[in-house]
Amino acid sequence: MELNFYLYIIGTYLIASIPFGYVIGKLFGKDVTKEGSGNIGATNVTRTIGKKAGILVLILDLLKGFLPVYYAKYLFWDTKLVAIIAVTAVIGHCFSIFMKFKGGKGVATGFGVLIALSGKVAFITFLIWLGTFLVSGYVSLASIIASSFSWIIIYYLIGDLNITIAVFISSLIIFIKHSKNIDRLINGTEHRFIYK
């Protein structure tokens, strides 16, 4: 692997590590890590600050997954290298160096990665997420189910083993980061996300 690739990995990790939810929360005078669920993702930002702030965080978190992978596809033709970049972006968001290796749950950033890898797969995955959310009202459940299916969908539609493994690892990280949500879902204490 060339030096440029290693520098690209470091850059991807640092960009993905930017905790936009925390930063925007501070701009509004709130520490989102101490409010609501304590997560720095768009859902908690929406709950604690408002819809506009939540949408902004969602877009920014999505872009920090999309942009590194999108450009990596043109800079590094080997899908193995693109796959490494894809996983690095999710790791950066979930284990941010700026948050003492804590971070978000990887859903928006992971979806950004998925869009860059395959728009068709991302669209199908989003439909699964949306359907689950509309039926259950749980963002966490929708995220867990959609991410769990994403690697299966990409395997059947794309068929590239390197990319499939990358999406599988990413979905596994997202699943693990939702462990507390899973406990609350099982216990019936998870909060539904409902707009008034």
UniProtKB/TrEMBL annotation:
Pathway where this protein functions: Lipid metabolism; phospholipid metabolism
Pfam families listed in its UniProt record: G3P_acyltransf (PF02660)
Main location (coarse class): membrane
Any one of the GO BP annotations: phospholipid biosynthetic process
Keywords (A to Z) from UniProt: Acyltransferase, Cell membrane, Lipid biosynthesis, Lipid metabolism, Membrane, Phospholipid biosynthesis, Phospholipid metabolism, Transferase, Transmembrane, Transmembrane helix
EC number: 2.3.1.275
Location relative to the cell: Cell membrane
GO cellular component labels: plasma membrane
Transmembrane segments: 6-25, 53-71, 83-101, 121-146, 152-176
GO molecular function: acyl-phosphate glycerol-3-phosphate acyltransferase activity
Enzyme's top EC category: transferase
Membrane topology per record: Multi-pass membrane protein
Catalytic reactions of this protein: an acyl phosphate + sn-glycerol 3-phosphate = a 1-acyl-sn-glycero-3-phosphate + phosphate
Extent of the signal sequence: none
Function: Catalyzes the transfer of an acyl group from acyl-phosphate (acyl-PO(4)) to glycerol-3-phosphate (G3P) to form lysophosphatidic acid (LPA). This enzyme utilizes acyl-phosphate as fatty acyl donor, but not acyl-CoA or acyl-ACP.
Subunit structure, as described in the record: Probably interacts with PlsX.
Family statement drawn from the similarity comment of this UniProt entry: Belongs to the PlsY family.
Protein name as annotated: Glycerol-3-phosphate acyltransferase
Species whose genome carries this gene: Hydrogenothermus marinus
Designated gene of the protein: plsY
